[in-house]
Q: What sequence folds into this?
């Protein structure tokens, strides 16, 4: 199986779970996670809590972007 940013892994998960892509979201902390989600046609929630800064991730146009993972849930 190809690794990120190939959509192969996401497509397999969608196939196994039978959850439609429009109901699927990837939460990640890197540009490659954003590219993977976009390549698979699913939503991406990026969190700048890893090795990548908020402004860097913003440049990849994720669907959602947070500075900390604690901001995702109310």
A:
């Amino acid at each position: 199986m190809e690794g990120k940013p190939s959509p192969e892994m996401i497509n397999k998960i969608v196939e196994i779970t039978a959850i439609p892509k429009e109901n699927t979201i990837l939460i990640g902390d890197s540009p490659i996670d954003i590219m993977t989600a976009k390549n698979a046609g699913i939503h991406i929630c990026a969190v700048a809590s890893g090795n990548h800064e908020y402004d860097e991730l913003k440049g990849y146009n994720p669907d959602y972007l947070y500075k900390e993972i604690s901001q995702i849930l109310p």
Strands lie at 25-28, 43-47, 64-66. The first strand starts at residue 25 and ends at 28. The longest helix spans residues 8-17. The chain has one domain: 8-71.
